[in-house]
Specification:
It is a single chain. This protein has 221 residues and is of the alpha/beta class. The chain has an eight-stranded mixed beta sheet with strand order 1-2-4-3-5-6-7-8, sandwiched between helices. It has a single domain, classed as 3-Layer(aba) Sandwich (Rossmann fold). The termini are far apart. Helix 1 runs parallel beside helix 5 and helix 2 packs across helix 3. The chain is globular, with a radius of gyration of 16 Å. Helices cover 35% and strands 21% of the residues.
Length: 221
């Protein structure tokens, strides 16, 4: 997984990027948890999602947002971090101009940033949100949400209680044409300490189901 440095809005950003050998492979961008609470691209759940996309044949990137690791700049309360995510997406799209799809996956704070990016980039075709901090941030901007996705919550999450995530899921599921695949992991807290493999398996299951459905729809046309 080669290290890459690319231009961000507040200086250079550090990432790890896997380029698929398949022509026109779909893209995936993976976003890490809160930088002020130790969140980096090497976070266990972030890494597990990265490897899951790699295994599925995607070209995939995870990166450090501003002020994390060797990325320049400083934490910007989420606003600048959305611009960092957009810059990472720009870099991947420049390298892969004919990609067949685009997925965004985020964990905790990364899920919030990812969903903000989803609203700004209509080319995103699917999303994964693990423990989205629905009790800390207002997700009302997802109106309307452009597409369905996978949301994962920990049954024993002490930082983002499961009912707060369920409330967000219920709200999104009332929107026309949007279906959220909601999965609650029994015994999991916010760090998903013993559940990284389960997160990866849920991601693979959801993404392959959605992609197979789309392929069948195209074949039927």
């Amino acid at each position: 997984m080669p290290e890459v440095m690319f231009a961000g809005p507040d200086g250079r950003l550090e990432g790890r990027y896997h380029h698929s050998s398949a022509p026109n492979a779909p893209l995936a961008l993976v976003l890490h948890p809160h930088p002020l609470h130790g969140g980096t691209m090497n976070n266990r759940i972030t890494y597990a999602m990265y490897r899951a996309f790699e295994k599925m044949g995607f070209s995939v990137m995870r990166y450090n947002s501003r002020g994390v690791g060797r990325s320049q700049g400083r934490y910007d309360g989420g606003i600048g971090e959305i611009s960092d995510a957009a810059a990472a997406l720009d870099w991947m799209q420049m390298v892969n101009p004919n990609a067949s799809g685009l997925w965004i996956a985020g964990y905790s704070f990364g899920a919030f940033v990812g969903m903000q990016l989803l609203m700004r980039r209509p080319e995103i075709t699917g999303w994964i949100s693990v423990a989205p901090p629905a009790n800390h941030y207002d997700f009302g901007f997802l109106a309307p949400c452009p597409c369905g996705g996978l949301m994962i919550a920990g049954e024993n999450d002490e930082l983002v209680p499961e009912p707060a995530v369920r409330k967000l899921v219920d709200k999104l599921n009332t929107q026309k044409g949007v279906t959220v695949d909601y999965r609650i992991f029994k015994g999991a807290d916010h760090v998903f300490a013993n559940h990284a493999d389960e997160v990866a398996e849920a991601l693979e299951d959801h993404v392959s189901t959605v992609m197979n459905r789309k392929a069948l729809a195209l074949a039927a046309d």
